[in-house]
Design brief:
The structure is a single chain. By secondary structure, this protein is α/β, with parallel strands linked by helices. The chain folds into two domains: about 150 residues, serine acetyltransferase, domain 1, CATH 1.10.3130; about 90 residues, Hexapeptide repeat proteins (UDP N-Acetylglucosamine Acyltransferase, domain 1, 3 Solenoid). About 45% of the residues lie in helices and about 10% in strands. It is built from eight helices and 14 strands. A five-stranded parallel β-sheet has the order 1-4-7-10-13. Strands 3-6-9-12-14 form a five-stranded parallel β-sheet. A four-stranded parallel β-sheet has the order 2-5-8-11, with no helix packed on it. About 30% of the residues are buried. The model has no long low-confidence stretch (mean pLDDT about 90).
């Protein structure tokens, strides 16, 4: 029994020493190794609440497909009105918290006033967002023979879920809302495997077939009636370390003009232009401008016949 007590005391002593030592290091914000990471002491945006906002927006934009599955025509206005009011109050709080993320010293009342204006401005954009999403649904249906109806596209296609979140995040970004757009985009990325930066500019009638692994960079510009397939990257080329501090303002991703199709696993990199009505084949690595009506294909593999194991 005595040895057991001694061992227990020694273990507690080791635990206390270890905890105190590491607490001292972890709470020291002046260490040169990570002084560039500021200590955050204000309210942060809530990821669960932002997910809730996106879910409610789906209910408003596509009533009957999400949330309450049965909505009668005579109660539709009431249903949308109640949901839209909940969106406003939730979004108001999250925008304010997003503003606090950077504006640590700003008066709370002033931040609330800015958040109110941005939340109302966003709600004013919902009809246009719905119009754009309707074009995306139509393009997705028209380009995918495996789906049987527009309803199936809305209800089950992960690409529409990703593009929906992009349209929401992009609208918030244009309104100058910090942090929230990126969180919303990353939620969709985690859910669908499709990574669309909210800063990208995407026109009408946009579709992504299958979708998994698609990456669309921050300064990408995409025209109307553009179709991508799985694994496509619209990215940047390697940049110098000196330029890394200014990347936010540097156009470094492709411009894809109207009526372009880019097939699976193609990599389109740098600030290049893919001309209208062009077709980019699968697995192509493209770093130069392409004129309109072009067809860019991967070079065919050289094949030869071998017998009895020769050539291996």
């Amino acid at each position: 029994m005595k040895e057991h007590r001694i061992n227990t005391i020694m273990k507690e002593s080791n635990l206390t020493e270890t905890m105190n030592r590491n607490v001292e290091v972890l709470s020291n914000t002046s260490l040169p190794e990570y002084t560039f990471i500021p200590q955050h002491h204000t309210l942060l945006p809530s990821v669960p609440q932002l997910k809730r906002i996106v879910d409610l927006l789906r209910i408003v934009v596509f009533p009957g497909y999400f949330g309450n599955a049965i909505i009668f025509p005579h109660s539709l206005r009431c249903h949308i009105g109640v949901t839209l009011e909940e969106i406003y109050w939730l979004l108001l709080e999250q925008i304010k918290n997003g503003l606090c993320f950077y504006e640590h010293e700003t008066d709370d009342t002033a931040l609330l006033d800015v958040a109110e204006k941005k939340a109302l401005a966003f709600i004013d954009q919902l009809p246009e967002i719905k119009r754009l999403l309707a074009t995306d649904v139509k393009e997705t249906f028209d380009s995918d023979s495996a789906v049987n109806s527009y309803a199936e596209v809305i209800f089950s296609c992960p690409t529409i879920r990703a593009v929906f979140s992009y349209r929401i995040a992009h609208a918030l970004l244009i309104l100058g809302v910090p942090v929230l757009p990126r969180i919303i985009s990353e939620l969709a990325h985690s859910e669908t495997g499709i990574d669309i930066h909210p800063g990208a500019q995407i026109g009408e009638y946009f579709s992504i077939n299958h979708g998994t692994g698609v990456v669309i960079g921050q300064t990408t510009i995409i025209g109307n009636h553009v179709r991508l397939y799985q694994g496509v990257t619209l990215g940047a080329k390697r940049f110098s370390l000196e330029a890394s501090n200014h990347l936010v303002t540097v156009p470094r991703h492709p411009i894809i003009e109207d009526n372009v199709v880019i097939y699976a696993n193609a990599n389109v990199l740098g600030r290049i232009t893919i001309g209208a009505h062009s077709v980019i084949g699968g697995n192509v690595w493209l770093t130069y401008n392409v004129p309109p009506h072009s067809s860019i294909q991967q070079q065919r593999a050289v094949s030869e016949d071998f017998y009895d194991g020769l050539g291996i």
